[in-house]
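Quick one - inputs below.
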Amino acid sequence: MTRASRKLRSPEASAFYIAGILLLGIVVAAFIVSLFWTPYAPDATDASSKLLAPCADHPFGTDNFGRDVLSRVMAASKYTIFISAAGVAIALVLGTVSGIPAGYFGGFADRSIMLLGNSIMCFPGILLALVAVAVFGPSVANVIWALGLVFAPTFARVCRVGTMEIKELDYITHARVMGVKPARIMALHIFPNLVSQLLPATVIGLANMTLFESGMSYLGLGVQPPDASFGKMLSDAQAYVRIAPWLIVFPALMLVFYILGLYFISEGLRVSLSKGGK
Amino acid sequence: MARHIHIVKVHHLTLSFPTRKDPNPKPVLDDVDFGIRDGEILGLIGNSGCGKTMTSLAIAGLLPDNARITHGSIKFAGKDLFAMKPRDRRAMLGKDIGMIFQEPSTALDPLMTIGRQLEEVLTAHKDNTQSGEDRLKAVTDMLELVGFTNAEEILSRYPHQLSGGQRQRVLIAGAALLKPRLLICDEPTSSLDTVTTVSILALLKELCQKLKITILFISHDLSAVRGFCDRVMVMKDGKIIDKDTTSDILSNPRNAYTAELLTNARLDTRILGLEPANVDYQASPVLTARDITAGYGRSLFERVRKTSEEKTDNNVLHGVSLDVYPNEILGLIGGSGSGKTTLIRSLLGLLPHEGTVSIKSASIGAIFQDPVSCLNPAHTIKWHMAEALRSSSKDPGKGFKGRAKALKRIISVLEECGLGAKYLNRRPNELSGGQRQRIAIAMCLIQEPALIVADEPFSSLDASSSAELLKLMTDINRERHTAFLLITHNIHIVRQICPRIIVMDEGRICEEGTTAEVLTNPRSECTAALLEAERRIHGI
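Output:
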């Protein structure tokens, strides 16, 4: 992939990549630093410094329990990145494992797999995830599973359509004539050629999953207190939006950076890969 | 309109594709200088990648964005094309310069009827003087001119309901509708069978005379050029190395390259050293097929709805039986849509069919028509070869020793196919069409099959590559005693290397026998038609 994009990168794609990596870099840097060090413990309360505006000691201010917002934002980036990455990984695995055989075999396998996928897709995604979390209990692991399941049909569709196109090409016929087994054809002959279609879908999936996760945390069904996530911080800050706007601004900004960064990167991928697709 | 002696004058044109790494690359077109005389049919021949298509794109103003013209000019009817505004140039396309491309299957919008597509050509040029009825009449007349007897009916058809030859006719009609002064034909016949090719060439010639259209005909099929063009230019590595009247160049080549092209096109068995092995027809056949019946397009819905009698109607093959003997190169010819490809798909076990196929070998190899999609773009050549070896029963096994042994075999097979170890780590997009077809053959060979099925492997290759490929195939046949089942439009190739042929028509075998017998003394109509078409095109 890197070979193709390096060779064919256009100025337009480069601009998207740079913007995307800069924005995403802010969030990822916060995440990496938070693993080793945060200015204060993210859940340490301090009754003497409640709702402080941004100052030298607390650059992003403090919340209603006197917790340092900068530390909490850094800690929250950890959950956001982890949940979106793990959820997309689950969706990607489920999607490819079901979508490629559906496209490759067609007929009954295709029908039944797609029926399952379509029945998941015909519910509003967030509702389904909320139901799953409500039934199994709110925890980070359940949120990841629920979101992974909800997103899997999207990837399955991308894989199915790509497979249906590729399987008609001569090199797949050739592999079949040579006596390569279907599982190997799907894994080694078809899958590598789907990467160019899956990559942008994955990046967009990361962004969408982050939005879902924030929404669920906002509704109180995602990350549980005292842990912080961007959505949870936004919902907590709601009550103080008039007197302490910094509680909203900083987590919201981080969320925007993360999602916008991902969108820019996917746009860059789309531009450079569609040029390379010729 | 003023008539110029040269409708197009290309003046010392040099064109290259500079990149950031290499700002002064080797030019793709190097000091190309020629004129197209008004009313003539000018042929442009040469091997793949010699710059034929770039020349035509430069004239039409359709060059890719990253192409840069470093020198020279093109004048169309006295106007300098490079000095014109992009808008004016675009307006010229279609109206003054028409183009027909190689692949008729992708050039038409699948969701538009033929009538609407052709009308679109007229409306796009904002000719408001015409009413809808006039336009319809113009389209119908043009369809009749290009040889449709049922023009009214064709208007409401969709592209998928037409055959390749019919689609190419529609495209020609579309290009001729605006009565352009120059028609650029970029290999318009290379994906068509011989019978269709002859009719398309005759049609183009008729249009040239009736509508006074000048034609630039790009081709690597020298036999098509011979009877069709008034003058011929030979291109090599972006340079025009020879130009003169057709008869002069093709009967009396003045330089080594043209002579080589001619030899390759003629497929002279002695010069190329094509010597297929002797066949023993007493031996038991390597492949026996009996009463193959197969068809497409039975969806679940149709299967439930239709009775068993109706089901047999959409079969493409009807009770085909054939034997392939060891060491033999069996030719399979027939027009487009005669069921050749369906037959081999059934033989290879890719299509469900009725009847029996028995093969006396662990595996059959297969080579397909399209060199672009025959290799997986995601993997290196080494991977392809290793995969072929792995999936055969000849796999030397895992581990260090096994892998070293495998690599040695891969290299030896590649060398046998005229490619060395340096190709191991290349990817398919770094190879030419001929090289890719060689890799496809190498992948078959490494499995040591007793039979290789080749489905029109030459049709997208130029004369030199196909001559080389043909030589490779006969060498393999002679040295390895591999049998070939060769499917082709090109009767000339069959005549040169196949001891026995089968002629197919409408899903049935209509004639079978030794090549000499069938081709000198055809007993069936379809063989006679194929031979007649070949005779007209080659002028034999």
